[in-house]
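LOG
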Amino acid sequence: MEVLVIGAGLGGLFCGALLSKEGYRVTVLEKNAGIGGGLQNFVRKGEMYETGMHVAGGFHENGSLKRICCYLGIMDRLDIRFSDLMSSLTYLDTDRTFNIPSGRDRFTAYLISLFPHEEENIKRYVDALFRLSEEDRLFYMKSGQNSFFDHSEEFTMPADKFIASYIDSPELRSLLAFVNPLYAGVAGHSPAYLHAMISVMFIDKPCCFVKGSSQLADALASVITEAGGSVITSSAVTRTVVRNRRVESVYDSNGKEYKADVYISAIHPCTLLDTIEDKAFTPFYKKRLRNIPSTVSAFKVYAKLKKGHLPYAEHSVNIIDSKKNTWKMSRYRLEDWPHGISCFLAPSSDGKWATHITILSLMDWKEVSRWKNTRIGNRGDEYEMWKRSRMEKVIEMAEKVFPDLRDSIEDCFAASPLTFRDYLGTKEGSIYGYFKDSENLIYSQLSIRTKIENLLLTGQNVNMHGIGGVPMTAIETAEILVGKDVIVNKINLYENIQTEANLP
């Protein structure tokens, strides 16, 4: 069976690789010159920078990502460095820094050492994190059904209320929400399951890709090509022909026509709509796709550092202006931006010094909407002045933890929500896809199946985002074709065989 995947981001590549493993002939079309979406790396003045995947979870022993990659036969192609720290977190209002360790027991003990009067509450909270994570069957590669209607009440309650239901101390509540930037959490709205699963992935063991996360994209692409499929770049789908409720073919930006038995869209649903004939979907469905709120975007500063100036830290460095603002980083007044930043360092060959630093701060689309009709390289002097002023704000905050940073910078540039929109093809530059609102989760949960019989969806807009969620959705999408639990059972069977044979 021929399968055509639209988009070579994390979702498209995982889905294509899994189907290739199952014997399907897969063609992946990607609009950019490079593959990977948020897994892409780019080089500027001899330095390689990450587009988005700075830290990852799930690659530890028995982690879901490691299990999938072992099954696909690509784990040995990945150069991964693990960290004993989940993150450091500094509150500028108290000038206090927390170095949060990974590992369930170490994480729990550390919190108890800081807040001994909360010992029992902390134990109950950590237990609850893992219990909620287990409610998602694919988080631990379990077979069976998985429906929102089957979950506990805690699963979909607001994350901030979930934390508060276990923890009394306001300071500890703020500390436990330190993964907030990884899902752009909003108080009263972001669901507890996002908080729980992302927290657990990093508690278990965070890691980074030593040679850049593009190696994962390349490895997944190799699974497709080695099975006889193709990954074609600079090939944006511009037209999707639908006849009798089935996709007949697609045309790319080069005017070439592609035909397949099944089509899988791994791009933003609104971008897909722009390619499809007007009557292919009902007005209600199109309106829904266009009106689901998106998560916030980001402003990123990339700085090349002078040799031997800034010591390397293998963990992310998070800085927040005040513990009172932990839940305000994605919703703020423009004059208050930024409430917080996340810093990621890249190591020198000896691992002692940082070669460059990437600094991320969440940013609302409205900050750049005045330039929405422009494209990269042609936004004008006003935009460049605005970008430099925002760079200064970000660097100024980073200097509170890295006092020698400004003197260490050799080259510096930035990306705005416009950059994310243009390169990643996301609505309003959203970095985590559709916003998941605990008050109306059903509205933002898309079915993998569409009203077009041979058109399926995958990627972060369908379910959970990021490296922890997108591969899970890829499995669900692939299993619509190969059969329920077929891939999950094969992953588990492969792991059992490897364990019994005492193989790596």
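LOG (cont.) second protein
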Amino acid sequence: MPPSSAQEVETYLTKHDLSDILSKALNACVQAQPDAPLPFLIDELKGSNAGGGSSEPRSAQSVEEYLAKHQLSDVLSDALNATVQALADDPVAHMAAELKKKAGGGPAYSASHTGAYACSAAAMWASISEWAPAHLVDVGPGTLEGVEGTGVGAVRTVLFPGPDGNTAKWTEKVTAFDADAMTWSYTCTSAVPFPIDIDTFVCTFSVKSTGADTCEATIGCVYDSDAPEAMEPMLGPMYKSWADASFDAAKRTRPETAATINIGYIVPKDDADRVQGVITKHTEWMKGHYTTSDALISCYFTKAPLFNVPTDPSQGESDKILFTLNEEFTGPDKVAAHIEAAKGNDYFPEFGEILGKYGIEGGVVQALGNVWFKLDSARCEGARPATGATINILYIVPKDKADEVQATITKHTEWMKVHYGGSTDALISAYFTKAPKFNDPTDPSKGESDDVIFTINEEFTGPDKVAAHIESAKGNDYFPDFGKILEEYGKVLQPLGTIWFSIR
């Protein structure tokens, strides 16, 4: 509450020795005659706050002349008035912040954590650059929903339980992302339940190498605030917990994939929003269910139009949308447990209806896949790039043709290992699976059909890299047979998918 009388103002000034502190800072400034007085005054005020800032008094005339020369009278008056109006507990810091704003120095406040960590910079960057990081949600208290995209422009919604029992909600957006420099930033795009000016708030994450297996990570922010004393004690420790959690995640060795779920849905455009809404309920459950689990290794869900000619998107789109769900588990038992646990959710009847209508009947459901070929981003040094586009293909092949099909696809894998062996500039990762087609995909105990399901799952840095991949592959001698298999057995052909949910 602002002061209500001149007496209250005088009391406040006296209590905090503001008149003396400001006088000392101003005298020091006049004594030094700096060309840029505001930064000098800010430093002097900070020194006064620490017990320094003494200087010989100057004459009233010399002070007046200096104030007039640099047009400081109004600036100092505004800063002092703002401090008094706020009745700040730390008026010197408040006044320094006000002067900083007048000096054009950006947001008045900052908070950060910088720590040394015993892992490679690449490993730390891969962890700290995640936009939907389970390891950061773990340290709470907030949770994430509505995570969309990667890199610049990606958005997410944060849910934060308040002490009154109500949950606040706000949105955040990535404004900068440089994988080479290992730095990225986000801002808030809606109001937050804290005394932070969202127009000035920017949070930045960065990593730099200090050795083969050591690095330095920094998380920090800048912001303006009407109540900085409420924010400063909170932000630094929070950023430390985030960086430490990222390090813990970076240290964890990625388990070997022992089983997969790969589902391809073909959905009419007019039902796509409903389908995505139901699948989103599944993603929310997964984020909570697998926060610290040793069952789910990674997953990513994609969405794309069904093109009239899958190998040539320029020939237009059909009236269908393709969704794919791609999940890697540590063992077949974990897949079975996943299915049973998911069945207990209130959304599952509708999820099962969509699975039957657009997966089993019109698409492909591979409930227990085995990875037989893999190119992981770890094959190359450096951070994992953000996925910009995917290829996801699901085949249903008669058992008596399975070996022939796999032999042809193997030729494709041999070419990929050479073509993409030393770089993740185009292909980030890929895994190919094989599994029997079960009579009932949700219950393998009911037996196998006479078909085999193959899946091809590839992640690229951008749509242009997908187009280049297809064109390059067409030049290989095996491609006529590969194309024949695609035409004859390909049931879900998604050559240009976009990831809208992932856990890694």
